[in-house]
Amino acid sequence: MSASVDVQAPESLDATNEEAPATPVRTGRARRLAWDLFAVVGYVAAAFGVTAGLWRDVHGTMLAALGGSDNALFEWFLAHAAHSVTAWENPLFAYSMNTPDGVNMMANTSVLGLGIPLTPVTLAFGPLVTFKILLVFAMAGTAWGWYFVLSRHLVTSRLAALVAGAFCGFAPGMISQSIGSHLQIATQILVPFIVWRVLRLREEGRAVRNGLILGLLITYQVFIGEEILLLTALTCGVVTLTYIAMRPRAALAVWRPFLGGLGVAAGVAFALLAYPLWFQFLGPMKYHGLPFEPERYYADLASFTAYARESWFGSDATAKGLAANVTEENTFYGWPMVILVPLAVAFLWRRRLAARLTGVAIVVFFILSLGSEVIINGHDSGLNGPWALLKRIPPFDLTMSTRLSLVLIPLVGVVLALLGDRLWGPRPLAPAVEPTEAELAGKHAAPVPTAAPVRTPWRPSDLVVRVVGTLAVVVAVAPAAPTDLSIIKPQPLPAFFTSGTWKDYLPEGTTVMPAPVPYSGAMDGARWVANTRMGFATPGGYFIIPTPDGEGAQFSSTPRPLSILLRQVNRSGKVPAITEADRRSAIEDLRYWNAGLIVLAPERTNAAPLQAALTELFGPPEQVQDVVLWRTAKLTGGA
Predict the structure, then answer these.
(1) CB of 109 closer than 8 Å to CB of 182
(2) Torsion angle (degrees, nearest 10) of CA 396, 267, 228, 287
(3) pLDDT in tens, 134-164
(4) Comparing 8 with 31, which gets the higher pLDDT?
């Protein structure tokens, strides 16, 4: 999400080497291609390593965070995306959950930009396999995206870009979002390309071309995750303002093409997103605000020097009390990284404009991530942060301040790339040549070296700096490297559904009521729907929808008497006294949901008390394959 601007692009360095013979040039290209291939293979291997537990049993494991509820939610999202393609239905709305009202998918994190292209995979292997593939893609793809952009447009050292890309894709904050199954946050492959195209807006005479490409990238990012797009825009804004302050003459010289290209990008994005955004904010089941208070999620100042649970040097003890939960451990860098980054920025300050821009952005987003009140190790310091002034201004009123700390990941990645370029590049200790403001204000606002780079002679002090710097990078990065993600074995999918037997028992036009009715703590029903190609609908679920009065937002539908009763049984394992009033209200709920079947999987936790409660309400069930069920036609007066 960093929009750092380089002052000496690798292409410019290569272009000045006019005396190089043809063979070395071919060798250089082959070497670069080898690095690129190594980056792809390395990142993918690392992503499979981090998710190794998920692949040991492809269909029988899922992420453990929050009991796997978010993992099940994204299974449903991906199944819906595939169903919308095969059934030619509007992907922006889903009827398969929260019957009879449905869910506005554009207003939820439905990752349609990922799910729709992978429809063939979902249909062939199921949504859980698709989710696992996308989790690998999120890590490896984000790392590769930053490697590609950094190696082409910021640094000459492929090793520096490789290390920086790895950090951007596998940093503790990215792993914490992956643990939470937050594909919309973890998948940031488009972010470096968006940043790159923003920088290209400075080019004279290419406003339409650059704006068109940027507009298309922005549009696609909306269908992956709008929150990341917002953070990217904020970062680009901060870096742009910093650039104007540091290089006013150069900025003044390129304002026309920049604003022209930005206008084209906005026009393209508006034209393509007009209907989806209308549907999100004005369509059916729209909502206002969030179902929780964003201000509760902030970055504890002490978390920056600690290690996350899923890091090599981390544990429950190192992270305890420093984040809202394991899925929001976004700021855990450890003392070595906290020391290295400012020292690296200071070391590079005079040599690279990119270091200055990135350093300022790091300070800004570090402060903002602390929230309205600065908390240190769980205790209020009595200091107020600038977020207190922003939190009531749209869109900041809907933003968790801790999520702003995710911006720091690519910013730190850029610092690592710049430092690595000085340590491991062809001229690690030679002074970099920055263009003057007059050169920056040239035709394409691109740096124009005045002479070919000259390698300085090796000196003993050079080797010392190179070795010490390399050790510092290793000591800072290695402890924060991720470990295997924690997994659980979910309740197996009933053969009653996977074999298609349910079709013989469910009357046409009716729905299935899982027991308990799906909510954030029991997503069995959502997985049943997702793995039957959305063959039926169920009540309840886990998503964001409007409150009954339409003035706010809430998780899941408003519980009805039957869903409340079953939720209590599921949590406590105890059956309350069932009254005749309970029976009457339960039958009314079945009619409201148009339920044709009530289904309970005996293998689930607290299945026995759930079955006992349902038996008292509706009589004895039928045993069909590996489920027990109640046919509701006689109860509700249906056919």
Answers:
(1) yes
(2) 60
(3) 999 999 999 999 999 999 999 999 999 999 9
(4) 31
Residue type, 187: T
Other CB atoms within 10 Å distance of the CB of residue 233: 16
Torsional sign, CA 312, 313, 316, 318: negative
For 94, phi then psi, to 5°, come to -125, 135
Facing residues of 379 across strands? 376
Say which amino acid occupies 346: A
Cis previous bond, 100, omega within 30? yes
In the block, which residue shows the tokens 């937050």?
182
Residue keyed to tokens 């390399």: 470
Q: Which amino acid makes up residue 461? A: S
For residue 9, pLDDT beyond 80: no
Interatomic CA distance for residues 175 and 186, integer angstroms: 8
Report strand pairing: 93-94 vs 511-514.
Answer: unpaired
Q: Which residue's entry shows tokens 């600038």?
A: 386
Residues 404, 354 contacting (CB under 8 angstroms)? no
Which amino acid type is present at position 75? E
Quote the tokens at residue 440. 């920056």
Token pair belonging to 114 = 């990922």
Q: Which one-letter amino acid corresponds to residue 140? A: A
Amino acid identity of 72?
A: A
88 alpha carbon, distance to own chain's centre: 27
- Distance separating alpha carbons of residues 474 and 230, to the nearest angstrom: 32
* Phi, psi (rounded to 5 degrees) for 596: -100, -25
Closest CA relative to residue 264, chosen from 254, 272, 276, 275: 272
What tens digit of pLDDT does each residue of 386-416 get?
888 888 888 888 889 999 999 999 999 999 9
Q: Where are the beta strands (DSSP E) in 93-157?
A: 93-94, 103-104
Q: What is the CA radius of gyration of the chain?
A: 27
Residue 11 neighbours by CB distance under 10 Å: 10
Which tokens in the block code for residue 429?
A: 């200790």
Q: Are 330 and 299 in contact (CB under 8 A)?
A: yes
